[in-house]
Amino acid sequence: MTRSPLILAALAITLVLSGCGSRSFGNKIDDQFIPSNVEQKIKQASPDLANGSHIVVTSYNGIVLLAGQTPRADLKAAAEQAARSVQGVRKVYNELQVIAPSSALARSNDALLTTKIKTEMLADSSVSSSNIKVITENGIVYMLGVVSRQQAQLASNLVQGVSGVQKIVKLFEYVD
């Protein structure tokens, strides 16, 4: 029974934080489960996808981003079809590249780049970082979120100034 206070505390913090931002509590919960459900569907769709590809799945407000690499175009299409079949998915952006999977070094550089970007966003009070999700894959920075057009532009300008960014892909939902 010692878990009950911890569970209640976690729930309380989640409820308080859900008041911040423009997504509902339900959307935030859905976004926690959608990526693993998509990954499971992708594995079921094709063993080649699970073994010969590097696929990053993320979700924000029911919008799914598929990023990474897969060696064949048919596998890219199969991953998208699998993602679309998951309950709660409103839209799929299939940004998979049809190339060999990236190296561990490239993935490490991507993680470092994402950290740099998030740090810059947190330090800049003009950017609403709590409404923007940043994913970097093979030097390409993807931004998802529910923001105003001005916020999207501010975030994009900030990301452009970070060394190592090869390309920026904005996948925002606009509130204005």
Automatic annotation (TrEMBL):
Keyword Signal: yes
All residue ranges annotated as the BON domain in the record: 30-100, 109-176
A Pfam family the protein falls into: BON
Protein name, entry field: Phospholipid-binding protein
Tagged with keyword Cell division: no
Protein keywords: Signal
